[in-house]
Amino acid sequence: MSGLLRAFARLLPLALLTGCAAKSPALVSEALQPAAGGPVTYLVGSIGPLGRDSAYTNQRILLRKRGAQDGAAAWWGFAEVAHTPKDIEEVRGPDKQALPGEASVFVMPLKPGDYEFYDFQFFWNGYNGGYSSIRAREQFLVPMHLEAGKAYYIGEFRSRCLGLSACMFFHGDQQPRDEVIARRYTPGLPPLQALNLNMAPAFPFVMPLPQAAQPAK
Amino acid sequence: MKKILFLSASLLLAGCAGTQTLPDPRIEAGQDYLPPIAVMVDSLEHGTELRNYLRESGVFSKVENGVAGEGQTQVMVKLDAQRKVAPAPLLFLSAATLFLLPLQSDLDTKADFTVMRDGKVLKRYHYENYMAKYAWLLDLGIPEREENIRRVARAFARDMQAANQASKPLEAQR
Amino acid sequence: MNNLVKAALMAAGLALLGGCNPSMKPLGYHAQKPYVPMSLLVLPDGYTRFDVQERDELTSAVRSSGAFSFVDHGLPRKGYALVISQPPGEGAGFLVALNALTLLTFPVPYSYVHNLTGKVYKDGELLRTFSYKREGMSVGAWYVPPPITENQRQMLTELMRDLEASALIPHVDDAGQVGLVDQR
């Protein structure tokens, strides 16, 4: 018995530390993962909260293969157990009270084809162990065509919540900044080309980033 | 004795998968998106769900909620989704056995789609999907009910795509 | 005790309990002509059992008035919509909850304020807000039915009457929605 406890005591810090390692911000379901040695297309971008309001919680943008239920997601997480890397940490702006936001850069390898950005999700763990989440009730459709051997930059998705229930993403362009970080994760990344998606269908859940909120590069 | 128990158990478990009369409609991939449609569904419970499944079908470039603008296709849906659950005495009996007794949990869906443009009716479609399912233990049959509505939405999307293809000139045939 | 007295007491008890039926009675309004296809959104939007039950009660009460020929869910960008919400008021407080110690037998009084608003939207724009309020005093005990259900019923009735009188939402014309309703 004491031997078991000792072994457990030795393993526990290791287990805790491994659990604390950052998880990849790109989640791709099995059906959409590119086959080994097969054609690959990459979707690159960044996601995270603009500031430390209610948006400072688990959030993701959801994509799916057109006409199918197979999905992929770009995710930003902040929790003791699961979190994504702090690739971007904002410099404190002129408002000294506002705590800086963060973001993770995601590089999503996918099977080439037609995809749709169709929903998002914010979720909080309740104080009593409950769980609440927000999704768009009426989903939207932002189609994209991803070809093999190419890497596309979808943009940065920075979130903000007004209160608890009105959460949205601001869509901006930080390609030079995100490309550097993306190449660190995936050295063999093909040259990044801007996807220039029309996010109008996703209004009011996704809005263009207001110029004043552009952080220092 | 063991064989009988095993057979009856596997029969119960197998029989608990839901069956749907409408097969999963096959939608051709790689076609152009159809122009935006505005959909109104006469169902407070399933309206949003149906619209989301129409979006998921990948056929329409945009599925809006509400009234269509000028020149835009309007789809009015009369959705009659009746849930048939086991009568209360059976419900109590099953509860007494901790829900080991499977309970009927059916969903009969009848849907009428009316496609209009600028106030004129273009076409009507009618779909029926009867789902039979025995709910058992923790299996409440929720995915099957969602699948029921999903197939009706996909059937309409498939037919709209086919109608669009049929009305295109021959050079569009790939 | 005499059997008859026992039966009488039991009957009286059941009658009292029966009178405490919490579900809403039908509205005092019945529509002459239904509205054109429109959307309805009943708040609160929550998914707790209480929210769902309350939402279902309000929705079925309003639908049973026959005012809707075709009703969808949500707030569309184009088209008519009615949003029914209940702004927070006042209800039974902590003292009444404490009354559970007496099994809700001791009559603990409380004052209440119940609100109900109906907002009419056209093409996403707010046309008009109808607000209703009910105030009063009640008692938190098992033998006194809570006033909220009856208040909701009255306020909904007023809302539906005012909505018809305001003529903001057009009615289905006498020819009927030939294109929209499948005449089977």
Automatic annotation (TrEMBL), chain C:
Organism in which the protein naturally occurs: Pseudomonas soli
Domain of life: Bacteria
Protein name: Lipoprotein
